[in-house]
Structures are given as C-alpha cells and as structure tokens.
Specification:
The structure is a homodimer. Chain A is α/β, with parallel strands linked by helices. Chain A is about 45% helix and about 15% strand. A five-stranded mixed beta sheet of chain A has the order 4-3-5-6-7. In chain A, strands 1-2 form a two-stranded antiparallel sheet. At the A-B interface, α1, α2, α3, β2 and α5 of A face α1, α2, α3, β2 and α5 of B.
Chain lengths: ~200, ~200
C-alpha cells in the first residue's frame, strides 16, 4: 500500500502503548500531511531525547542528565526519600507536586510469578542510600497490589535496622489500583495521610 | 517535572490524533525505557520518512518517492481512475485491495462553510488527466456526506464532456460515514456495486 519506510514508521508507532494499527496509521497520515508542524518537531524532539537519554545513577529516574533534574535540584529535601516501583510512578507523584524529597526507583516489584527476586530490583542500592545516612524518612510508595505491598514489606524489613522513619502511602488508594492511573487528588490524599509501617 | 527535552517530546506526541497528554506521557515513558526496541526504531523510521517524504505530482498521494508506488506500479490499470478526498481515503481503499487502477487525491472537499472552492482542490489537475486520454472510467469515491456528494456532482459535471464512464461508490456506505472509518467489507461492497452517475 505505502512505501516500506512509511510501513516501518506505522509499525513503530503502533507498538506504542495506547496506539493500535489503525490509530498509528492515522497518526502517520497526520505526520505526513503536517510536515512542518508535526513531523519535524517530533523528529527533533526524539533526536534530542535520544542523544541525551540517561538513567540517573542515584535514583533510577530516566532523564536527559545524570544526576537527573530531581537529584540535582538543591531545593529538594534530601532527608525524605520516596521509593517507587517504576519511573511512571515517580512522574505520577511529581505531577501531584506534594513530595518535596527525592526518589528511588526500584525498576519493578517482587513477583514469584514473574520470577522477580530482590536482586533483580534496585533494593541493595536503596539500602546503601539509607545506610549512608542523611535520610530521616523513607516513604514506600508501592502500588496497592499484592505484589506492591509484598515489596513494601520486604523493603521495610531490610531497612528496619537503620534510624529512619519508614512510612507508606495511606490506603486511600483503591485496591488493585496502579499509581500512574490515579487522579492527582487521590494521590495527594494518599501522600498526606501516609502512616508508619505497622 | 522532567527535562525540557522530555517535555517537548511529550508535547509533540500529544498532538498526534488519538493521543492526549496522559497517553503521550505513557508513550514517552515506554520510549525511554525501551530504548533499543522502541525509541531507536521510531527515530530511524521517522528520519527515513522525513528525508524521503514526497507528494506524488501525478496523483497527490503522500509517499517516499515521486511518482508514488501506486503510480509507478506497471501492474496498475491506467484506464481506471479513482478520485478521493484525502490521502487517508486512498489508503483505506488500498487496504481493501479491490481497486486495480490509479488514484487522484483532491486534498479536501468543496465546502461553502469552510470556504473551500474548486480552485482550492486538485480538480483542474484531475480534468487535465482525464483530458489527456487513456482513461476509461473515473470512480468518484467521495465520502457519503453532503459536502462529499456535492464535490462528486461538481466533478461529474466538469468531466461529462469527455468520453469516460463516470461512476460513484454504491450507497452501501452508511449516511454520514467517512471512508477511513469503514470496515473493509463495507468498502468492498460499495466498490463492487459502483454505478454510473445518474
């Protein structure tokens, strides 16, 4: 139907979450028709991100610099550390603008089903950050899923020997819900009402 | 929240049809996390298309070559010409694989409301193609909207002096429907049952 280049672009777009083959085709047509206002800016933005993409070696955030903008920001409260499963969760919390501290991205959650063990996540790195001191509170902001809560309890046990307050998000989260899908009001409520791990 | 480069990319993606701010953010996260399998292929595909993007000077199709793959294909029946409003409609018909001829993209439809006049569309170019001979049939494949049908009637009048059979898609199309949204079965039926303009 179309040239191989256009087919390849359609396929690359259709693999993005939220786009299927049909919507990818519409997106490609939009890009082809609006070269100056759609294709060129997207290409420039992708190129810029691709050239400077970096994973923060401190917190695991994905950014265009290492350390990331959050770790490098002197206004962030270094005594508060929020542990999240994924970068998407970090971004979701940042959108609520309620957490003044820094983050630690685990890169997933413990899962017997998927064979994810503690050594597959950035848990040792988290313990090191806590052990090196300067942190008063660790907020465990895992998803309210079984695996998320298992991960939270495992981490709480790993760092209970250190002189830090360990809290978790209040269970205003709907059961089974995932952070990145929540509205910011619910997130804000859950963050404000966070409580010590029992 | 994120670096300016990532924000720019999110905005560029959110302007694509079918993606809003939230789904664009998810798509960006996916791209950042799957650099080798998502970001790099998309960047390469966009670059390839951007470098070779061309509008076919014969039919108005958007492709990576001029003439486009359809106009350059010697197996296409040059005696049949299908006139469509937009490139999206051409692609929709190509997906049904039932039309063996070539195409002519008008670039829109006549619209008093939007101030689109005949000289704003590729109608003169169509008349020239018909006048230059070698065409037996012109299939008017406009959308089954008021404006699409007005456009079809206008074109039928403009080319009635030439020795070509002028047909239009059968009105198996649902009223108010647009080609690009139809399933291929309906499109195929409409194409098979095309009939002369009364």
């Amino acid at each position: 139907m179309a040239s191989p280049e256009i087919e390849t672009l359609t396929q690359a777009l259709s693999r993005l979450p939220g786009l299927g083959p049909r919507s990818a085709r519409r997106a490609v047509l939009h890009l082809l028709k609006k070269r100056e206002t759609a294709l060129d800016p997207l290409l420039a933005a992708l190129t810029a991100v691709s050239q400077r993409l970096a994973t923060c070696s401190t917190c695991g955030n994905v950014d265009t610099a290492d350390p990331c903008a959050i770790c490098a920001d002197p206004r962030r409260d270094t005594r508060q550390l929020c542990v999240v499963e994924e970068v998407a969760d970090l971004w979701a919390l940042e959108r609520s603008r309620l957490f003044p501290g820094r983050f630690h991205v685990l890169g997933g959650k413990l899962s017997a089903l998927d064979g994810v063990r503690p050594e597959d996540l950035a848990i040792d790195a988290l313990v090191s950050r806590v052990a090196s001191g300067g942190i008063d509170e660790v907020v465990l902001a895992m998803n309210a899923t079984l695996e998320g809560q298992t991960t939270a309890h495992y981490i709480a046990e790993r760092i209970e020997a250190y002189p830090v307050r360990v809290t978790q998000l209040a269970h205003g989260l709907p059961v089974g819900g995932e952070l990145d899908y929540l509205d910011e009001g619910t997130l804000a409520q859950a963050l404000r009402a966070r409580r010590p791990v029992a």
